[in-house]
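Risk mitigation, structural track. In case the binding assays with coproporphyrinogen I fail to produce interpretable data, a predicted complex structure has been prepared as a fallback.
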Amino acid sequence: MPFSWMPRVIAGEREGPKDFPQLKNDTFLRAARGEEIEHVPVWCMRQAGRYLPEFRESRAGKDFFETCQSPEACCELTLQPLRRFPFDAAIIFSDILVVPQAMGMDVQMVAGKGPTFPEPLKEPEDLQRLQVKVDTAKELGYVFRAITLTRHKIEGKVPLIGFSGAPWTLMSYMIEGGGSNTHSKAKRWLYQHPEASHMLLKMLTDVIVEYLLGQVAAGAQALQVFESHAGILGPAEFKEFSLPYLRDIARRVKDKLKEAGQDVPMIVFAKDAHYALEELSQSNYEVVGLDWTIDPLSARERTGGKVSLQGNMDPCALYAPKERISDIVKKMLEGFGTRGYIANLGHGVYPDMTPENIGAFVEAVHQHSKQMIKQI
Ligand SMILES: Cc1c2[nH]c(c1CCC(=O)O)Cc1[nH]c(c(CCC(=O)O)c1C)Cc1[nH]c(c(CCC(=O)O)c1C)Cc1[nH]c(c(CCC(=O)O)c1C)C2
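Fallback model:
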């Protein structure tokens, strides 16, 4: 039995542990599978974030990763946006950098600077510092507990999404030591140390697979894999250093879930990877998330109805007056169509955005899509 909480998952049962409140709004899950819906579901990346005064209040004076380690705090932050807006999904509050931490790296959140690794990986020898076999139940059990608690507290209102960073994005943080414009330290590895790069990407893939499976066992009803730094790679590097690992993650997670009779939709969000849209639509994920640099109609054409699509309004459109947001949403819905589509932003909400405009975005998606579906 690989996970201590595994006995709670009954083989053959689709919804996971039995004692969770029944799901009342499964629109997001149906859209992910391309099934019929009454309105287009909508959620926002970074919907739990600093643009909400209640989020800033809860986070005030507390260390970021300590907050991530508190299931109660993560649950509260996940639920906050749902109290304000009729989102069709929630995403568990956590961070992609908990995985490098679980592998033994120190990561701190420095105010005004963002995530910082005091001792980043510099040369291939540094891989020896990393934990190869990670006991995810021990190192990341706090995330699993946050998911289980949130599944209870969310009362079946909407599905709960679990997530992980993808191997290349995590590798780039581990080598850069934080955010970067050029990612030149991490890219140097790809060109100077391709073998060590693959070794690190493989190590990360193994941990991510276990981590995502643990999230589903804990109660996650969908999974999103964030390849936020895809755009810094060109098509050839993406094909060699990102895509095979993204595919491997989805295949291995799905194979394991199938054995347990579970079916959990997976979303891949490779930011700025418009050059790889065709490949991404054939990479074992039900949903491909899009940033705003891709035109909805051409995304549909290029993915050929093989997958559902998610996205992709420019987050900065939320600075526009509400009527303009409504027009932009309408055009976006007309471009994607209402079937096999999950409305979202093309990236996360920024801290200086007004909650009211997020509300206008959500309302516009629901209103316009209901009308469009009625007319079909
Ligand atoms: C709200 C927040 C988070 N992380 C960080 C913040 C801001 C700091 C704070 O509020 O104290 C630091 C935080 N964490 C990270 C950054 C980016 C730093 C950089 O690259 O410059 C910051 C400021 C790293 C990170 N972290 C994440 C990504 C992938 C998504 C993306 O591309 O934005 C990345 C790249 C994932 C993430 N991170 C978070 C979520 C929560 C759920 C939600 O979306 O509502 C998620 C999904 C939460």
